[in-house]
Amino acid sequence: MSDTSVLQRMLQPSILISLENHYESKKVILIENQSPDSFIEIHKIPADALVIDLDRAFNNQGLFQGKSGECKRADYVIISEQEKKVLFIEMKRSNAPAVDIVNQLKGALCAFEYCQIIGREFFQERDFLVQYQKRFISVRHTGGTKQKTEIEQTAPQGERHSNPNYPLKVSWTQCIQFKKIAY
């Protein structure tokens, strides 16, 4: 069974964000739950992408104390089987301390890895979501202030934003292409 099919069987439909038609391709609009005027549109997203509203869906505060940041999680996870990519996206209307953003991205990675285990153990999919490249993205200043878009790679030279400790920082934009943040 395809990874996408397993995810659709596994996840609650209410946590999936629908893709929209956009000219000859697809787009998705991600909205920060606490600030409805804080959003970003991702254009040319793969048609097979599943967009998970992790911030709304996942709460582990009944299990963990949260003293070390382990209860945090990013806002969204985008999974494309076609592209073999997983994007972890944390949005901020303004700015936030780097440690908070990193903890939120780490929490989202933990939720993803938990889904991998569920797929293996309960859906008998041994290689579930195994061959995917992970990308960690911090989107800041999404409140609509017009300034020049900034994209900052924080990973060590020659590496991509494949580690939650070194996310791609995107600032001052309300629209970006999928490939700009996925590759």
From TrEMBL:
Domain of life, per UniProt, equals: Bacteria
Q: What is this protein called?
A: Type I restriction enzyme R protein N terminus (HSDR_N)
